[in-house]
Amino acid sequence: MANNLTSALDKKLVLGEDSKDPSPDAKGGSKDDKSLVVCFGEMLIDFVPTVGGVSLAEAPAFKKAPGGAPANVAVGVSRLGGSSGFIGKVGDDEFGYLLADILKQNNVNNSGVRFDPSARTALAFVTLRADGEREFLFFRNPSADMLLRESELDINLIQQARIFHYGSISLIDEPCRSTHLAAMRIAKKSGCILSYDPNLRLPLWPSEEAARKGIMSIWDQADIIKISEDEITFLTGGDDPYDDNVVLTKLFHPNLKLLVVTEGSEGCRYYTQKFRGRVAGVKVKPVDTTGAGDAFVSGVLNSIASDLSLFQNEQGLREALLFANACGALTVTERGAIPAMPTREAVLRCLAQVADKK
Predict the structure, then answer these.
(1) Per-residue model confidence as pLDDT tens digits over 275-285
(2) Distance CA 260, CA 268 (A)
(3) Helices within 169-283 (DSSP H only)
(4) Where is this chain compositionally biased, Basic and acidic residues type (predicted)?
(5) Which pTM was predicted?
(6) CA separation (Å) from 148 to 160, 172, 174, 358?
(7) Read out DSSP for 112-134?
């Protein structure tokens, strides 16, 4: 009985007094905000080695850090001065409360967070080895994020959004997959722009074919897609990721407003219905690449949420993508994803320094 009471009090402290009716002050965001970005999917604890360039087996110790691509994007948008919310599920455990509180501390509306008493918050051990390859070890058997049900969706939060953003990890298992599809339907019906970052994590899928099929199953519904070079190669069965014709014939679909291909430190390519081009990257000395793609996405979505004309305005879009490139660059100069997400002021300072060097 005491434990149950403590748990209930913890939830009120983390989520605000009434989890069914979020107050903007308690949870970040605003009910009347017309530029809200709502992110759907996983939030978890990343364990990263305390030293760089080692395999997971060689790591002497690990440091915990909040993670999960959709949650990273939500925090990234908020750090840039935008309005964001997060929908997902964590365990009814200490890590779950920690993650919900981190969202709140970063002014992310966390009214869509649910706690599962029967499953733990997901854990991931992540390292960047000396050979440059990332290594992942996931603990999800199943984890709470996989168990979010349609009945637990914060429909009100989705309907407020201008942009609804998601990945593909939430498509792997039921019941989360059906919940993901239901959330997309609600968002589309509400007039939201649908944003998709596949964020391929092969070890989590039953097979390569299942991953390819699962990722592509919702491809043609997105208005915005961000994809990496490696993901192009994977999804096209080995085609050249630098070939515009490959991108345009195999990945660009008639409903797309914007497709962005990220090229790490080299910058990004963009494709719209009317124009296409490339924006150079911002050069920095990297420390940890974790979260760089999510920071980039947050930069893009924050710009579009406040100015929908960017889909037709190439110069404006190029400026927004340069801003996003700087977001990603600044993130790799610090360890971890959420701790490294930059503020708008930091990005503008970075861009001013880049301009001064030209």
Answers:
(1) 999 999 999 98
(2) 7
(3) 176-189, 208-216, 229-235, 244-250
(4) 9-32
(5) 0.90
(6) 20, 12, 9, 49
(7) EEEEETTSPPPEEEEEEBTTS-E
CB 146 within 8 A of CB 140: yes
In angstroms, the CA 16 to CA 110 distance is 9
Domain residue limits, the chain: 37-43+68-120+142-356
Task: Kindly state the tokens that stand for 314.
Answer: 């190439």
- Quick one: which of 223, 220, 264, 274 has its CA closest to 242? 264
Q: How many residues does the chain have?
A: 358
Place of tokens 């983390």: 14
Task: Reply yes or no on whether the pLDDT at 239 is more than 50.
Answer: yes
For residue 271, the SS3 value is: strand
Integer Cα distance of 301 and 63 in angstroms: 30
Please give the Cα distance from 72 to 85 (Å, whole number).
11
Question: The tokens of 279 are what?
Answer: 């924006």
Decide yes or no: CATH 3.40.1190.20 for domain 37-43+68-120+142-356: yes
The gap between the terminal CA atoms of the chain, to the nearest Å, is 66
Peptide bond into 142 cis (omega under 30): yes
Q: pLDDT tens across 255-304, in order?
A: 999 999 999 999 999 999 999 999 999 999 888 788 999 999 999 999 99
Lateral strand order in the sheet of 134-139: 62-67, 44-49, 123-128, 134-139
